[in-house]
Amino acid sequence: MTSSVYPTGTTIYDPEKCWNGYTIFQATLHQTRGVGVVLIDMNGNAVNQWKGFDGFPNKMLPGGYIMGGTGVRNFKYGFQDMFDLVQVDWNGSIVWKFEKYERIKDPRQKPRWMARQHHDYQREGNPVGYYVPGMDPLTDKGNTLILCHKNLINPKISDKRLADDTIIEVTWDGKIIWEWVCSEHFDEMGFSEEAKNTMARNPGMTFTGGGTGDWMHMNSMSTLGPNRWFDQGDERFHPDNIIWGGRQTNITAIIDRKTGNIVWQLGPEFTGTPALRNMGQIIGQHHAHLIPRGLPGEANILVFDNGGSAGYGNPTPGAPTGLGNAQRDHSRILEFDPTTLEVGWQYPPRPTRGMGAMHSPFYSSFVSSAQRLPNGNTLITEGQDGRFLEVTPEHEIVWEYMSPYTSRMLKTNMVYRAYRVPYEWVPQIDKPKEKAIPRLDNNKFRVPGSPRKRPLKVTLIQKRK
After folding, report:
1. What is the CA radius of gyration of the chain?
2. Can you tell me the distance from the alpha carbon of 171 to that of 173, in angstroms, rounded to the nearest whole number?
3. Is 441 inside a domain boundary?
4. Are 181 and 153 in contact (CB under 8 A)?
5. Total number of domains constituting the chain
6. pLDDT at 317
7. Residue 63 gets which letter from DSSP?
8. On the CB side of 308, how many CA atoms lie within 13 Å of its CA?
9. Which residue from 13, 96, 285, 291 could staple onto 437, CB 3.0 to 4.6 Å apart?
10. Within 10 Å of residue 276's Cβ, how many Cβ atoms?
């Protein structure tokens, strides 16, 4: 249970312990007439806002450019399909655009080209879409990897229509030069017969999108970039290979860029080895990526393990059809070695023996992300409730922000993903002042007008003689 009244904006800020910069996020997802994209400083002041702009997610590039979309397809006909992927300047003028993946004719709508982009994309020059020293994304040239949708039927999965995930690479002038289709690699994923049976009956059918099965629901996609595993001779970790995460299947995988084959995979089951059992079941994960070279923890995988429910398998009391049969009521951030699966860091810290996470306040069953910062801190988007926090390796919260923006459509301040960028990426404005905001004592904080907490008269109970 959470409070119905809570402070918004920056609530904690220690400038000496933070990696200071600007934070960009989509304030009201899939609502282009709403607030749009907001860029804030460390004290929570909005320094720029791009109204009428959507983002799934929004990313900032050097020079004050941002990427996102100009709108989303009607959910009656397509689930989370963006019209286009664009790059705009500080003033909102479009300087690059891609939309020609599929020509769509929806009922009562004029035919139009759509990118059908969703959840992620990466501009050449940077593997992960957030700041990495010496790996700036290109702003006036270069290719872009884009995660998209394509409708199809694959009898190996189900006889129902699927909203399949694809990854495409497009040139600066919009030419598609490479495509990877997720369902074509179904046989490589190692699903149990029970999972296959459940999936055949219900491949993640949605009430939106005209009744399509969102069977994999990929929500992250990035290249590996230079890393020590490849330097040591492990071809699975070629810098051009692509890591992705499938929320509905609990699978995180790496594909070979040249062959398209899956060369490394985690999930859907987490019981086969001692290392998997020690890690524990990952459920509905978001933003799985390899920490890039030049950042603390480089070559480890960082992932927001949401919890909630996901997966396919045998029916359970909480999942009577077998859909979403893996369940957990809290979230965690995991950083682990992809070659040994040893967990090196997690947030919140692992509970001591006998102390479960039943009282953990950290929980976002969908959306969310984690970004490794150059000083070793981690920027976390606990997206379901619009909360961002920067935590140290020792798990101390040194910055916290609660989004004050509520979507009229979704009736929530949910944020899909936020990113921290350096001040120098925004030359249009002067570096802001940084004012510390100490943590409030919740036992003493009161809303104006509420009674102050006063010492009570203590009465001792006398024992009978």
Report:
1. 23
2. 5
3. no
4. no
5. 1
6. 94
7. T
8. 20
9. 13
10. 16
Residue type, 419: Y
Half-sphere exposure of 23 (CA within 13 A, CB side): 30
Pair 29, 416: CB distance under 8 Å: yes
pLDDT tens string 48-101: 999 989 989 999 999 999 999 999 999 899 989 999 999 999 999 999 999 999
Cα distance between residue 7 and residue 363, in whole Å:
18
Answer whether 174's CB lies under 8 Å from 219's CB: no
Tens digits of residue pLDDT in 291-339: 999 999 999 999 999 999 999 999 999 999 999 999 999 999 999 999 9
Q: Please calculate the CA angle 230-235-239 and round it to the nearest 5 degrees.
A: 55
pLDDT, position 30? 82
CATH of the domain at 260: 2.130.10
Calpha distance 154→164 (Å, rounded): 9
| Both tokens assigned to 93 | 């003028």
Reading the block at residue 155, the tokens are: 């009898």
Task: Express each pLDDT in 193-249 by its tens digit.
Answer: 999 999 999 999 987 777 899 999 999 999 999 999 999 999 999 999 999 999 999
Specify the pLDDT at position 227.
Answer: 98
Contact 164, 183 (CB under 8 A): yes
Distances (CA, A) of 398 to 13, 299, 302, 331: 6, 25, 20, 20
Provide the phi-psi class of 431: left if phi over 0, else alpha when psi is between -120 and 50, else beta: beta
- Cα separation, 30 vs 36, in Å, equals 9
In a domain, 449, yes or no: no
Q: Judge whether 204 lies within some domain.
A: yes
CA distance 265 to 389: 29
Domain hosting residue 415, numbered range: 21-425
pLDDT tens digits, residue range 118-147? 999 999 999 999 999 999 999 999 999 999
Structure tokens at 394: 């020792």
Q: Which amino acid is at 232?
A: Q
Q: Are strands 343-347 and 162-170 parallel, antiparallel or unpaired?
A: unpaired
- How confident is the model over 342-388, as pLDDT tens digits? 999 999 998 755 555 555 689 999 999 999 999 999 999 999 999 99
Calculate the dihedral angle through the C-alpha atoms of 123, 127, 128, 132, rounding to the nearest 10 degrees. Answer: -100
- Is it the case that residue 421 has pLDDT exceeding 60? yes
3-class DSSP state of 231: helix
Euclidean distance between CA atoms 125 and 142, whole angstroms: 8
Rounded Cα distance, 337 and 81, in Å: 34
Annotate 289-310 with DSSP letters as a single string: EEPPTTSTTTTSEEEEE--EEE
Query: From CA 85, how far away is CA 165, in angstroms rounded?
Result: 16
The model carries a pTM of 0.95
